[in-house]
Task: structure prediction
Amino acid sequence: MTLRLSPVRMTVTRDLIREYAALSDDYNPIHVDPEYAAASPMGGVIAHGTLSLNLIWHSLELTFGSQGADCIITEVRFKTPVRENDALEAGGEIDDSGEIRIWVRNQHALNVIEGSARLKGP
Amino acid sequence: MSSPALSADAKTEMRLFDSFSPGQPCGRAVIALNRTFTEQMKNLLGPSLTDDRIHMAAVPLLLMRAFTTVVGGRPPGNLHVGQVCELFELPGTEAELEANVVCLGKEKKRDRKILRFEISLSEPGSGRRFMSGVSTIFWAA
Result:
């Protein structure tokens, strides 16, 4: 039987990316300078990868609770850039072996992040 | 926007790929969390299940904050391509965190310059671990 993580959704706006830049102190122009980003290989502003990754951790908290979720590890790859106005959903599936496959998907059903998570013993 | 108080030995010179050596510490800093920062995280990331500890959703954010605080002079155009996050214990909302960053590895693949960094956050003095992570970054210069 496969169990699912509680989904977490977010629409990524320019304001949100700028707020995240301030909180993370990461003002890489690929995130905050539309002209620079447009001229870069990315072809426009992209969100910070960890902004989307935070959604997975929120999903883990909602699923396992903040106490039970201590001692957890996630390993992910950032597969596809997240653009302004992308609508994201983070989630995951837990199989019988306890392996947790995690992802963040955009409105085109593309995985922008994928990887795995596991809970560790105390 | 108010940020956590910092007492950092942050660098401001441009850090080039060639300046990193695997196994070499990149530096340390102390990050003092405060209620303003915590509330901003909640506003951005959604409601938390706890009021007395940091929002679990903020684990990747805190690791990145640790990295940017310690490793200044990052070139524009860096791309973050992979991340490991490991949580041991959520810190309190007004905790002091000691951030340490070590260069774990570097390699070139075609025209890509790839660096891996280990980031850890612990309690100053006691060394009690809160979280750690490994960031893989395409370095732009």
In short: Confidence is low (pLDDT under 50) at residues 5-11 of chain B.
